[in-house]
Design goal:
Mean pLDDT: 90
Distance between the termini: 45 Å
Helix content: 10-25%
CATH topology of the largest domain: BirA Bifunctional Protein, domain 2
Number of strands: 15
Number of helices: 5
Radius of gyration: 18 Å
CATH superfamily of the largest domain: Bira Bifunctional Protein, Domain 2
CATH class of the largest domain: Alpha Beta
Low-confidence stretches: none
Number of domains: 2
Shape: globular
CATH architecture of the largest domain: 2-Layer Sandwich
Strand order of the largest sheet: 1-2-3-6-10-9-8-7
Largest sheet: 8 strands, mixed
């Protein structure tokens, strides 16, 4: 165990040499002997990491960050659980921004919670909840950030890392300790009910918001403009049907239904 600092986020870190999934490990802890809020599971190697919608999270051992934070957002109504996704995405985006050289790098949140830099993916988040009687009893926020990896599997052609972006090698433990600060900051904003502030910050970083793009929606190619994200997490898109300049508004609930072309 590593115990550091005074922040409740990351007050205790269970550092593992190797595990299938930090989320799976953390969920087992929650169901057996729940630790205090902020307890973190960090793995140097994660060989069966999971991403959104059942996708795999592929990562090179001992070069990147793969960790899960246990949270107790019992103040958050079940119907509003996407707000936790927003604050975690904002926290990771802020950390990534703080590591980059000042210049042309543009950090964005690609709906619902991937972090992009210059159209390349650098981080992903998977939040899994333990629900009891319509209450979010525990949340496990799994985070994967590409730190020092310099070559990626061909199945993830648009990936990047802090090392590729900056030319520098980063200390993983230092990065982990640094990310706890924005995680706690945004989480406490949520606990305080500052929804408007969170929503504005999330939309400011929303990938390709307000830009007319070539899209594939449910397998059909079209032009569309990302308008925003609803309170419950649906992506709001205005699509151009191509017929007499007719705009059709859509709400997408599954990221697999949308591809940027």
């Amino acid at each position: 165990m590593i115990t550091k600092g005074t922040l409740f986020t990351g007050h205790t870190v269970d550092k593992l040499d190797k595990v299938d999934s930090t989320n799976r490990y953390a969920l087992d802890l929650v169901k057996q002997h729940p630790p205090a809020e902020g307890f973190t599971v960090w793995a140097l190697e994660q060989f069966a990491g999971r991403g959104q919608r059942g996708n795999k999270w592929l990562t090179e051992p001992r070069t990147n960050l793969t960790f899960s934070i246990i949270l107790l957002p019992r103040f958050l109504p079940l119907a509003e659980q996407f707000w936790l996704t927003r604050v975690m995405a904002l926290a990771v985006a802020e950390f990534v921004s703080s590591c980059l050289n000042s210049g042309s790098e543009k950090v964005a949140i690609k709906w619902p919670n991937d972090i992009y830099v210059n159209d390349q993916k650098i981080a992903g988040i998977l939040i899994e909840n333990v629900i009891e009687q319509s209450i979010i009893k525990f949340s496990v926020a799994g985070i994967g950030i590409n730190i020092n990896q310099s070559a990626f599997d061909p199945s993830v052609p648009n990936a990047t890392s802090l090392k590729l972006l900056t030319g520098s090698t980063f200390d993983l433990e230092d990065c982990l300790n640094r990310i706890f600060i924005p995680v706690e900051k945004f989480y406490l904003e949520l606990r305080s009910g500052n929804y408007k502030k969170i929503d504005e910050a999330y939309h400011k970083l929303l990938y390709r918001r307000g830009v007319l793009c070539n899209l594939s929606i449910n397998g059909k190619t079209c032009k569309g403009t990302i308008k925003g994200v609803s309170a419950t997490g649906q992506l709001l898109v205005d699509t151009d049907t191509g017929e007499h300049n007719t705009i059709e508004p859509l709400e997408l609930s599954d990221v697999k239904h949308l591809v940027f072309l």
